[in-house]
Amino acid sequence: MTQRIVNADFTRGEAISALVWLSVGSLFGLLLQVVYLGTWISLPGGTQIAFPYTIVLAFLFNMVLTRTARLWTDSPGTALIPLYAWIAGFFLLMFGVEITGDQLILSSFRTIGLLLAGIAGGFWPLARGK
Question: Residue 39 — φ and ψ, nearest 5°?
């Protein structure tokens, strides 16, 4: 088994800045995942099926964000800051309908799948120990 090596040749300010940018990226990623969650594919013959590929993307994207955050910190809790931002953004979009009147996140199994996949993807690198 290989040992994890962390480059510590950066300042605390650079690490905070990196985590902030990863969090901003997670929010942009979330917005795109939500917008394309209701994607349908037309098959030959005119049949359409739901194709929520953003559920898989949420898992993979949050996994990459957590792995990248681990490059900036040894603390698992701190490495989850982009995931915390993603989850907070998810619930803001979900409950923001009360404020804005626009429902961005639909009440469906796809929404639950997106939330669970995003959380699982964020925790996956920590669960694997890498």
Answer: -65, 135
Distance CA 121, CA 88 (A): 16
Per-residue pLDDT reduced to its tens digit, 90-124: 998 888 766 666 556 667 788 899 999 999 999 99
In the chain, domain spans:
14-128
The DSSP secondary-structure symbol of 37 reads T
12 neighbors 21 (Cβ within 8 angstroms): no
- Indicate the pTM of the whole model: 0.85
Cβ pair 51, 39 in contact under 8 A: yes
Instruction: Give dist(CA 62, CA 23) in Å, integer.
Output: 10
- Distance, CA of 103 to CA of 37 (rounded, Å): 13
3-state DSSP helix/strand/coil percent for the chain, to nearest 5?
A: 65, 5, 30
